[in-house]
Structure formats: structure tokens, C-alpha cells
Input
Amino acid sequence: MRRELPMAVACIVGLLMLAEYFFSPVTLKTWGSEIQNWSVIIAAFALGLAAVGLIRVHARRVIEKRPESYNSVLLLAAMVITAVSGIAARQGPVFKFIFERMMTPLGAAFYAMVAYHLFSAAYRTFRARSGEAAALLVAGVIVMLGRAPIGEAIWSQFPVIADWIMKWPNLAGSRGVLVGAAVGTVGVGIRVILGIDRSYLGGE
Amino acid sequence: MQPGRVSSLLALLFVTFAVLYFMQRSRKKLPSIRRISGLDAIEEAIGRATEMDRPVFYTTGMADITGSYAANIFAGLELLGYTTRLVARNDADIIVGISQPNVYPLAVRVVEEGYLQANRPEAFNQDSVRFLSPTQFAYASACLGIIQREKAAATLMLGHFMAEAILLAEASAQVGSITIAGMTSMAQLPFLVAACDYMIIGDELLAAGAYLARDPVKLGSIAGQDWAKLLAVALILIGSLMVTIGDKSLFTLLNK
Output
């Protein structure tokens, strides 16, 4: 029953949502909308469960005085302050300060790091060890030069060749992967609805 | 019937019948599937972690089970179960980083079940599955911190990732970790191909469960999916030829 009940729920709800997508009776629309509302409520409970898990992990690190447990103290303090200030007054100055002057700039700083990590990865990896690697290297260099103003200054045809690479072979390959992924996604959905794929319950 | 969805329904029915047909047929004859080096490398990565006495870090990325990349998360959870069984049998450690609250209880259940199936329930530690954050870069910084503090020997990124993908891959490269990544989305694929040791692309990730389990029914469903892909290729070729000669009837039909 522990496995059969979740599988039955997944099957029924999955078929209902599929029917709601394709057919237009008002009853289906109402049920579909109600299920989506339930999923929001379940997500809220899941968030509470996840928060409890987070607090437990970090509280244990602090209590056991593990190395660098000051990070866990900081995390727990930030969590409590943000939660209390958000619950007390979401438009209040404390919560707004935390979101606008701390979260947003930190996110932007991390996003800026992406470019440097990419250079590091490219420096490590772009070696012409094989035919495919050489093709990747040459195409990558041409597209980089084609997209940067210096490329056009070196040779006016770099942007043209870069556009051709992005428009034809790259797009063809991307679409091939997308078609495969789309069909694979449908296959996973069918397996979950039919109860063949039980990965979400654990086990093989 | 909703307007504009008839062709989608017909395509779905074709895929469903192909999957069901080949699932039945595969009970008599097991379909063959080509080698996927990224999936074969998981066992190698776990072995490496065991020898180095360093943990394996596993994460399923940013997507939720209710979004459009839910299939990636299901595939990631299936591979998490497989990885956990290997970790348990090899007496290694695993740390699982989860971004979405909906995925967290599923991941805990999958890891617990993995240890149970490997006959090592006493080795399961619920703190090995950690909820990090649904905010993108908070999740990324948590993953970076875990990889670099714990000096993960193997980093498995199997699910759906966005801009944080390259940050995780580079962080694991800096600590000498073997990195195996898998996702279906095209956006971060080039970065991960450059940064990771092994890459599982597109529907290889979605076929992973069947590939590793060698289950006839699941392999049959993969064979059915391949027939659906053949149908898609046929429609693309026929449609391209028809549009080239000025006939848009197939295009109009597929838009119904």
C-alpha cells in the first residue's frame, strides 16, 4: 500500500491533467485548476519540511562544534532574521534592505563570476586532442571572434562565418537534441503515469 | 477538443502505443542500447571516491517536479538511487544537495531506499541529503562550499541547471573532482561539455534508468521512443520538401 497508493495518485492525477490539457469540458478545467491549487499548498508544506531539515543539519554542526561551524551560525541567524522580518512586514525596511541591498547584489556578483569560470573552463578544455575536439576548438574561436568587435576588425568575414555556424550546423544539432529530449520527456511521463518508473518512490 | 491541440494528441497517442508495443515485445527479446560513456563512468567515479576516501557530491539542479523540466528531475532521482546503491556497497560517502523543497523529501526517500536495497540501512544518514535553497545563486554558493570544503572526489550534476552549472563544474575541477553532468536543456550544454569530464546529453539522461537497470520493460519503452523520433524525422523531411515546393498542407495539418 505504501507504494501502490502514491502510484495510483500519480496515475489518476496525471491522466486528469492530460485530459484537461486536450479537452475543454468545464468539469475538467475545474478539477485541473483545483489540483494546481493543491500542488501550491503541498509545496508550502514541502518548504516547511525542507526548512526543518536545513535547521537540523546546521544546528547539529553548531552543537557538535564542527570546524567552521560559524558559517552555520551565520546561516541560521540570517534565516531567522529574514523570516521574522518578512512575516512581520514584507514591505518593511528590514526585509527590503535584506532583499535589495544584500540578496540582489550577491546574486549579481555570482552571475558576474560565470564569465571568469567560463574562461577557466575553456582554457582547460579547448585542446585539439581529437578530430571532434579540433572542430569544437575552431568553431568556438570563429564564433567568439565573430561576436566580438575585434573579430570584424581583424577580418570582415568572421561575423558572417560565425552567423552561418550558429544558424545552420549549430541550430540543426540543437533541434535534433531538442526533438530527442521532447520525445524522451513524453516517454518519462508515460512511464510515471503507468507506474513503470517508480524513481520518485525510491528503489529500482 | 481544445483548438490547436489535435496533432499533439495524435502524436502523444502514437508515442504511447509505440512505447506500450515495444514494452510488450521486449519481454521476449531484449532491445540493444548503445554505450553511454557518461553513465558507465558513474561506477568509476564512485570507485575513485572510495579509494580517495572523499565523498561523492550529487545534485539534481534547479528544476522542480511540477515544472517543464520535471522529467529531468525524475531521471536525476532514478540515477540518485543507482548512485546511492553503489555508494552503499562501496562504503563511500554521499552528500546530496537539493534546490527545490518539493524534491527534498523524494531525495531523502530515494537515498534511504538505496541504502536499504544495498543491505546497509544503518549507514544511512539523513543529514547527507541537504536542502540548500531555491534561489539560484544561494544554491550555487552552497554547492560550491560543499564541493570545496568536503573536497568531493566525484561531482554528479544530473538534472536541470542554469547559469550556476559552470560555477559548479569549475569548482569541482579546482578540487580535482571527476565531474559527470547530464541535462536536456541546450542553454548550458556547451559550457558543461567544456567543463565536465563526462556529459550526458539530451534523452541519454532520460534513458539512464533503463540503461542502468537493463530492465526489459524500460528498455522497450526506449525503443518505442526511438520510433517516435523516427516519425518526427520523417515529418521534418516530408514537411521541408513540401514547403520547398510551395505546399503548406502538412504545415497547416500539424497546426490543427
User: Anything to note?
Assistant: Helices of chain A lie at 4-22, 26-63, 70-88, 93-125, 131-147, 149-154, 158-167, 169-194. The CA atoms of residues 41 and 47 of chain A lie 10 Å apart.
